[in-house]
Amino acid sequence: MILQILKHTPLWVFALFFALLFLGIQQSRPRTASKRRVLVVPLVLMGLALYGVVSAFQAHPIAIAVWAAMVALVAALISFLRIPRGVSYAPETGTFAIPASWTPLVFIMIIFFTRYAINVALARDPALRDTDWFAAVVGAAYGFSSGYFAGRLLTYWKLARAAKGQGATKP
User: What is the pTM assigned to this prediction?
Assistant: First the structure.
């Protein structure tokens, strides 16, 4: 069965997988990033997750509401915990020094495999598209990973704001 699923997977999906894998592996090394980069990448990943919800369920209110609630809940938790830890911001250059972490790769893969599994499930049983419980589960899964990236953005924003005029700072 898995071979049949892989056989019917479009080639662009494999290309996307490897591009996302590369992006996640880059996060496993310490790096510096501009404000723009720390904004764009999470927004793209959050957009991909929201697109997954909308493309699977159109404007199903439960799917979107659960996604939004999960984003808010997880983002607040991540921001409260100041994740990622060890980030510093240099206001004179407008760059963040970000320590290595495998966690972003995990969340990037959660988004990818959630979307892949949902599309397989819907291809096998299109009636799932009309079930509230499936819409809620999908919204929660996408919202969880989106909330992680939104929380990281909040952490970066708070750090940059706190560092404004005070030199480099660390959470």
Answer: 0.84
